[in-house]
Amino acid sequence: MSFRWLSRGNATSGMGVSDHSRSTFMDLKRKRVHRYVIFQIDEKKKEVVVEKTGGPAESYEDFTAALPQNDCRYAVYDYDFVTSDNCQKSKIFFIAWSPSTSRIRAKMLYATSRERFRRDLDGIHYEIQATDPTEMDLEVIKERAN
Q1: Cα 10 to Cα 113: distance, rounded to the nearest angstrom
Q2: 1, 43, 49, 96: which has the highest count of C-beta atoms within 10 A?
Q3: Contact at 8 Å (CB) between 9 and 18?
Q4: Would strands 47-54 and 88-97 be described as parallel, antiparallel, or unpaired?
Q5: What is the pLDDT of residue 14?
Q6: How far apart are CA 90 and CA 81, in angstroms?
Q7: What region, left, alpha or beta, does residue 96 occupy, with left being phi > 0 and alpha being psi -120 to 50 degrees?
Q8: Which domains, and CATH codes, for the chain?
Q9: CA-CA distance, 122 to 116, in Å (whole number)?
Q10: What is the phi-psi region of residue 46: left when phi exceeds 0, alpha when psi lies from -120 to 50, beta otherwise?
């Protein structure tokens, strides 16, 4: 029985990626019109869609506050920083948000679809998988970017 259940779970890894999701990511990457993009899986459409975007002036705190406390999401965050050589840089982070309080089905769905979705987003510098806010704290982002 558990084998059949696992097989059904793997079938969900065929989640498509909406054209809007791809173009919104490209807007963040190339045009820098978004600070972050939060994506969710639309089970009815069987694809990853844009749930929310944050403007260039929004902070990391705005981004983390926009993530649901009890449900999974994918997100990309464009982190700007200045190097020790005083160079302005930007790194794009992919965050797989899967809080421990989310439903098991949601965790499975997001886990099995993550790799395919992540591959569709060309230009990601770093990936973080987080189950609670401390695993994606701004200090973690800063440390990874430098």
Answers
A1: 9
A2: 96
A3: no
A4: unpaired
A5: 60
A6: 6
A7: beta
A8: 2-145 (3.40.20.10)
A9: 12
A10: left
16-17 vs 126-130, strand pairing mode = unpaired
Percent with pLDDT over 70 in the chain:
90
The reported pLDDT for the residue numbered 85 is 92
Tell me the DSSP string of 72-115. Answer: -EEEEEEEEEE-TTS-EEEEEEEEEE--TTS-HHHHHHHHHHHH
Rounded distance, CA 105 to CA 103, Å? 5
Determine the Cα–Cα distance for residues 125 and 18; give it in Å rounded to an integer: 22
Residue 56 dihedral angles phi and psi, to the nearest 5°: -60, -25
* Residue written as token pair 């800063």: 142
Average pLDDT of span 67-80: 97
Question: How many CA atoms does the CB half-sphere of 37 hold within 13 Å?
Answer: 23
Query: pLDDT tens for residues 22-62?
Result: 999 999 999 999 999 999 999 999 999 999 999 999 999 99
